[in-house]
Amino acid sequence: MKHRRFSAHAVDQRNALTPDALTMMDTIARTGSFAAAARELGKVPSALTYSVRQLEDALDVLLFDRRSRQAKLTAAGEELVSEGRRLLAEMDAVANRVRRVSTGWEAQLTIAIDGVINRPTVLELCEAFYALRPPGHEASGPGTRLRLRTEVLAGTWEALISGQADLAVGVPFETAPATGIECQPLGELNFVFAMAPHHPLAALPGPLSDADIVHHRAVAVADSAQRLSPMTVNLLPGQDVLTVPTMQAKIEAQLRGLGCGFLPEPLVCDLVRAGRLVVQSVQRPRRNAKLGYAWRTASVSAPRKAPQGLALQWWLSQLQSPATRRALLQRASGMQGLHTDVE
């Protein structure tokens, strides 16, 4: 029976915390008196006083200090007003997002980005997206929440195939896309074999053979795929390996002389120029990484082609620009000329 009484009381509390009640509390606190709040809300002061007492009874707290002639909030009242304002703002935001979804703008767009992609360029694209003022949303923009996630190698494909991402940038382009996935080329990324100046391989005459390299530890970035078969790139059989979680961690490890390995040239060219990394030529044939971008067009549960949301359409239109694709594969200093279509 106690459980039932507790549940009934909890329901009464929830029923009491209506948008009208929260708005009333906010208005009283903002105007400083019941009379001024009643005028603003179009009510008589006695009706407002009655509503406040009902709210206090439902919550079993005092919201106003009765010893003061003014509408002075108690600590509980201040907390209710503060949280009430947050809830009212969130209600407005939900209503706006629902309205935007009805016009074709997604509530959220998740983009999986490989660790070799230039982050400043991605953030510049985010800035351009937030600056959009489509018809009907001139005041606040499209309202789609962007979520960026970093993946490595096959992890970019897995995020897309599993539905955890709507768009993947930097996928291995030579990998065949799964059913319901469309893929377009992003470009080629040049890798260089590098190590710290004090690393033993830095002093050897090049080009280095696999026999020279195999006796020295390699630094590798772990493939972020959990279910797909992880990819292994440029590692020799029997070679010691230090595995790190990100490309930035790989660069830092090689700067410390903890190992050697291939690094994206655009990300390390400034370090090479400054003498903090040494680039060595190798005997094995060099192959640039061919990268692409991909998006879901259907799902297993809905095999027919799904309509694209307006946010995804905008990002795909940016990726069609050769200047944007180049900038995504360049370092920050090579970002001039990034093309964005801002409406």
Give the topology.
Elements: H1 2-16, H2 19-31, H3 34-41, H4 45-59, H5 75-102, E1 108-114, H6 119-130, E2 145-151, H7 154-161, E3 167-172, E4 181-189, E5 191-195, H8 210-213, E6 218-221, E7 241-244, H9 247-255, E8 261-264, H10 265-273, E9 278-280, E10 289-296, H11 310-319, H12 322-328
Parallel strand pairs: 1-2, 1-3, 6-7
Antiparallel strand pairs: 3-10, 4-10, 5-8, 5-9
Helix pairs in contact: 1-4, 2-3, 2-5, 3-4
User: What is the CATH third-level topology name of the largest domain?
Assistant: D-Maltodextrin-Binding Protein, domain 2
* Total separate domains: 3
Q: How widely separated are the two ends?
A: 61 Å
Sequence stretches where pLDDT stays below 50 over 5 or more residues = 1-6, 300-304, 332-343
If you had to describe this structure to a student in words, what would you say it looks like?
40% of the residues lie in helices and 17% in strands. It folds into three domains: 101 residues, Winged helix-like DNA-binding domain superfamily/Winged helix DNA-binding domain (Arc Repressor Mutant, subunit A, Orthogonal Bundle); 126 residues, D-Maltodextrin-Binding Protein, domain 2, CATH 3.40.190.10; 97 residues, 3-Layer(aba) Sandwich (D-Maltodextrin-Binding Protein, domain 2). It is elongated. β1, α6 and β2 form a beta-alpha-beta unit. The longest helix has 28 residues. The N and C termini lie far apart (61 Å). The chain is an alpha/beta fold and 343 residues long.
